[in-house]
Amino acid sequence: VAISCSTKEQKGINNQQQRFSAEKYRPQFHFSPEAHWMNDPNGMVYYEGEYHLFYQYYPNATVWGPMHWGHAVSSDLVTWDHLPIALYPDSLGYIFSGSTVVDTANSSGLKIGDEDPLVALFTYSNPEWEKAGRNDYQYQGMAYSNDKGRTWEKYGVVISNPGQKDFRDPKVIWHEGSQKWIMTIVAGQHAEFYSSPDLKNWKKESEFGYEVGDHSGVWECPDLFPIKVKGSDETKWVLLVSVQPGNPPVQYFIGAFDGTTFTPDNTQSVPKYLDYGWDNYAGVTWANTPVGDDEKLFIGWMSNWRYAEKIPDYGFRRGVMTLPRKVSMVKRGNQYKLISSPVEQLEKLRKENQTVSEMNCDGEVKLDRLVENREGSFEMEIDINNKSSRNFGFKLSNALGEQFVFTCDVENKRIYIDRSKSGVTSFHDEFINQNSMEYLNFGNMKLRVFYDRTSVEVFINGDEVFTNLVFPNEVYKEFEVFSKGGSIELQRCEVWSLNPIWEP
Question: Is 40 considered catalytic here?
Fold first, then answer.
């Protein structure tokens, strides 16, 4: 929202706020486009006080179509200003996913004026070549901006397709060790690494992933970055890759990168996942952020390609991003892992809160009063001490009997998400399948839950997270904590209403 505006402009802002609040499935504190289709986050970069979020966008319908780059900016990762479309399709093809960097040294020679150039690398996808059955219909293009990302000039193709299908989604970083730009691309079910001194001329360095990781689908949206291990001087390299279709979708590898080759740790024998829910896809990190070497800022598309175009359309089917998250690396024994948590800036949205504490539960405890007046959008923190329970958790529900259930199965050492009765589910058979993960320590559980009309994100002990869409016919206004086969102590449960992110 603008700092100052005319009466006419203010009326338009107020009308938009009323419309967004009235749309049945419009999220209230997650980023969504003003209208039409959105999928992968793209080109995320921080520059001169602004977080840029570009995204795959089709401005003519609420289903996927010829891809553009939509554009929004934020000073805090929470409230967003929508800007005009940044990149349009042209004769070379649709504008698929990619990344943006700040070329502070002007290595590209594209600087005009006083601002550092923002350089976007993206995939052109040629629909005519694809229809003709060619494998080389995707290739890497470039564009640049000299006015803080407000207008863009196309440069052209910088990497031609060597004959590989699904050759796309360039993610570019500056590698200090080799003093070169490094581009990570995915091709089918493996990753490839290219280097460049100037962002224009690229040399292939190596490949990775043929015999490791999750190969249940095509690899997409890679992200390669170094990160310090929390509480140490050790640095590890991380490679994120989304699997389409994948459940869970975002896998990651931990290892080393020398400017040429990514070498995974020998300790990684099975895939690791950033999020065990089904609806965090294509997530990548921001470039050039003002955070420490031991943190990265991340956001994903909150959907799944199995059913993204079939979800209910009740005035809102345009795509939603996950909450922005802070990603860190920790070492537990001999194992390294990525953990994620919501960015602290979200706390400024908090308003009315209620708390209950020190309650024993052996069965079901109804706590509807905590959520019934929050219009289907709230944040909740739940602290549980498991005394003797074999099965415990919480349930969000409504008067229609629709429910979202989070269960800690102590006996089987697993956490389950059940949305089989969450509301509208008939649009895809697999939507009702449980999400689950192995979990070993159920003694003390600290949960942070964000419910926003069509989504539930559960952060567990600062270690794990489940992100899931739900489509209840009425918002959830009932809440209970349950325990079976023993008791738990609900040490604390605090709930906040949250302001919509488009309010002034």
Answer: yes
Residue 371: the pLDDT is: 96
273 touches 248 (CB < 8 A):
yes
The single residue of 40, 103, 223, 452 carrying the catalytic annotation is 40
Q: What average pLDDT does the segment 108-121 reach?
A: 97
pLDDT score at 5: 39
Q: How far apart are CA 489 and CA 242, in angstroms?
A: 38
C-alpha 249 chain-centroid distance: 11
Q: How many CB atoms lie within 10 A of CB 104?
A: 12
Output the DSSP codes for 302-331: S--TTTTTTS--SS--S--BPPPEEEEEEE
Are the C-beta atoms of residues 180 and 197 closer than 8 Å to each other? yes
Between CA 472 and CA 124 the distance in angstroms is: 38
Predicted confidence at residue 246, as pLDDT, reads: 79
Look up tokens 């520059």; give the residue: 47
CA nearest to 74, candidates 324, 284, 378: 324
Confidence class of residue 8 from pLDDT cuts 50, 70 and 90? very low
**Residue 473 CB neighbours (<10 A):** 12
Count CB-CB contacts under 10 A for residue 39. 21
Any idea what DSSP says for residue 210? Answer: S
> What gap in Å lies between CA 418 and CA 482, rounded to an integer?
14
Instruction: Kindly report the number of other CB atoms within 10 A of residue 236's CB atom.
Output: 18
**Cα 144 to Cα 154: distance, rounded to the nearest angstrom:** 7
CB atoms within 10 A of CB 459: 23
What are the residues whose beta carbons fall under 8 Å from the beta carbon of 350, sequence distance 6 or more?
Answer: 379, 496, 497, 498, 499
Cβ neighbours of residue 211 under 8 Å, at least 6 residues apart? Answer: none
Q: Which two tokens stand for residue 30?
A: 């997650």
For residue 48, CA distances in Å to 147, 149, 484 come to: 11, 11, 53
Strands 350-366 vs 377-386: parallel, antiparallel or unpaired: unpaired
Tokens of 462: 């600062």
Q: Taking a C-beta distance cutoff of 8 angstroms, is the pair 352, 496 a contact?
A: yes
Q: Distance (Å, rounded) from C-alpha 43 to C-alpha 170?
A: 10
Tokens of 77: 């990762």
Q: Which two tokens stand for residue 448?
A: 């942070």
Q: Return the amino acid letter for 361.
A: C
Backbone angles phi, psi at 77, to 5 degrees: 70, 5
pLDDT digits (tens, 9 = 90+) for 53-73: 999 999 998 889 999 999 999
Report d(CA 238, CA 338) in Å as an integer: 9
The owner of tokens 């003709």 is 132
